[in-house]
Amino acid sequence: MHQPPATTSASPLTPGSYQAADQDLERDLERDLERDLERDLERDLKDHTQVTIRAMRGEDADDIFEIVNQHAFRYWTLALPYESFDSIKTWLQPRSPRDLHYSAELDGRVVGASALRPFYGRRAHAAEFWIGVHEQHARHGIGSRLLAAMIDTADNWLNIKRLEMTVFTDNVAALALYKKFGFEIEGTHKAATFRDGAFVDAHCMARLR
């Protein structure tokens, strides 16, 4: 008697298989972004060789006000729409003598800024920071330059053992940048903040010297 050909059936997809596929996709995205960051940094050596990292000045406020009110800065931070110039100028003032503010200058304009803010008392060995880069100069290594300057100050001048911050879990470019400098994810805040109509999670990241 003729036997019908054997048939095979695909195994049903389980929640675990979907999760594994998502994790593989996330790893691929991170790998691609790391390659992009390296390529952008190489291009920066050619296109942004005139960028100077220096101490922030009072007259930088106009350029930084423009950066803070851009969509990219607001989307990836806790900034609000329509923040006034006076409120931004006040925010840029050091909260203490230990705070250090940095500007990235190119062709007479500030195209990036950051601040290193050490803690006090029993947390004097730790510090937090922020970084902002103008949208037109993103992915050109300016964030890397600012972060490197803050790490150098923290390690070699302030004896900071722990640098920490929070970053949205979907900010893949920032995650790749911080991991490149030795930051590790320590945990995740669920529904950490409200952004553009939805709650979003944030990773706690730190670098220990």
Give the secondary structure arrangement, pairings included.
Blueprint: H1 15-47, E1 52-55, H2 61-68, H3 71-76, H4 85-91, E2 100-106, E3 109-118, E4 126-133, H5 142-156, E5 162-168, H6 172-180, E6 184-195, E7 198-208
Parallel strand pairs: 4-5
Antiparallel strand pairs: 1-2, 2-3, 3-4, 5-7, 6-7
Helix pairs in contact: 1-6
Description:
With 209 residues, the protein is α+β, with helices and mostly antiparallel strands. Helices cover 37% and strands 28% of the residues. It has 6 helices and 7 strands; from the N terminus they run H-E-H-H-H-E-E-E-H-E-H-E-E. It has helices at residues 15-47, 61-68, 71-76, 85-91, 142-156, 172-180, and strands at residues 52-55, 100-106, 109-118, 126-133, 162-168, 184-195, 198-208. The chain has a 7-stranded mixed sheet with strand order 1-2-3-4-5-7-6, with helices on both faces. Helix 5 (142-156) links the parallel strand 4 and strand 5 (162-168). Helix 1 (15-47) packs across helix 6. The protein is globular and about 60 Å long.
